[in-house]
Amino acid sequence: HENPMSQITPASTSRRIDVELGSRRYPVWIGPGLMSDTATWRETIRGRHVLVFSNRTIAPLYLPKIEAGLSGLSWDSYVMDDGEAYKTFANIEQALGALARMGATRDACVIALGGGVVGDMAGFTAACWMRGIDFIQMPTTLLAMVDSSVGGKTGVNLPAGKNLVGAFHQPRAVFADTDSLATLPAREYRAGLAEVVKGAAIGDPVFFSWLEDHAEALAARDPAPLIEAIARKVAYKAGVVARDETEQGERALLNLGHSFGHALETAGHYQTWLHGEAVAIGMVLAAQLSEQLGMADAADTGRLRRLLLQLGLPVAPGALAPAETLLQLMRLDKKNLAGKLRLILWDGIGRARLVPGVDEAAVLGVLQAAIN
Ligand code: NAD
Ligand code: MG
């Protein structure tokens, strides 16, 4: 007979979105209680060896939740220090050493239990061990749930720059347990919301309107709209990834606001703004520039600014650095072509496109106006 609790078990409330990559197709599960729902994720582990990759903040909170599901397997954990500063080759080497110590074979699996830093490193470790083994994402930040855990970009920083080394290596499955967001610091939560807004701003105007209607509930972490928002952003990104896995074209649009944002992050030495906050400001700057260039209406910029403000996000760079310095940093962006600025701009909400040869004077003007 039916367990009355089954109404609120993950099976009835979780959402599943598939990333359609042919034989490498994989599910992204989103919902409460997924970590403890061991039956769902355990069956994605094919071999005997498992390495759980996490950090010192997340492991004490969430490793106990998945331990029961690992019983009977030969498993170990690699727990790194917490922070972007530890996204290093030294830590990759340590994790590979842990796989070697357990005698991991080709059918071993790495579980990424954490935010984007852990996910990128765990994925890269899996991509390297014996030229590529399975990995599973269990993202614990909103940013990792809606962005970094989906799409197969893995990597590590070098002293010369962020994410300079990496591999495309898709996970076998993603399990986004939304209960884990309860312990996420407010600023990190809002930074994740910026990446949700970004998806809607690039290519989903209906979703954008929905976000406007649910901004207050999302700011308050109301579970039902939050799961819906995560699912819609994941579905959007999954579609882009399925069409352009290795970023030959459309996938680059996911960088809306990022050229401005990276300049802001660099100018603040990664201390002033979180990535999502910098992207929020960067999207507004991109909208303002689009307006300047006659591509979009002021009304679209206004809607974007209002939504971000309602979600508690910053919308202007402040007196971080002079406009000339920010422009100089933007000239270093990877997307530039033949010494000319190449930016993701938009024709209005839900209609982003890559624009080559953007006029530097217009960019400078927008930066100056935003700073003053
Ligand atoms: P993060 O992994 O550093 O996590 C942010 C902070 O929150 C950390 O201090 C972490 O320990 C803590 N934390 C995580 N989950 C928690 C929880 N449930 N409760 C309490 N604290 C928790 O940062 P992030 O924003 O998740 O990820 C940023 C990283 O992701 C960057 O390295 C970036 O390069 C990468 N990234 C990758 C992709 C991709 O496609 N691979 C996309 C976007 C970003
Ligand atoms: Mg980003």
Provide an overview of this structure.
α10 (258-267) packs across α11. The relative contact order is 0.10. It is built from 14 helices and eleven strands. It has helices at 10-13, 38-42, 58-67, 89-101, 116-128, 142-148, 186-203, 205-219, 223-243, 258-267, 275-292, 298-310, 323-330, 360-371; strands at 15-19, 26-31, 49-55, 74-80, 109-114, 134-139, 153-158, 161-168, 173-177, 343-346, 352-355. The chain is α/β, with parallel strands linked by helices. A hairpin with a 5-residue loop joins β10 (343-346) and β11. The chain has a seven-stranded mixed sheet with strand order 1-2-9-6-5-3-4, with helices on both faces. Strands 7-8 form a two-stranded antiparallel sheet. Nicotinamide-adenine-dinucleotide is lined by residues 55, 57-58, 61, 82, 84, 87, 114-118, 120, 140-141, 143-144, 147-148, 151, 153, 162-163, 180, 183-184, 188, 275. Magnesium ion binds at residues 147, 195, 258, 275, 279.
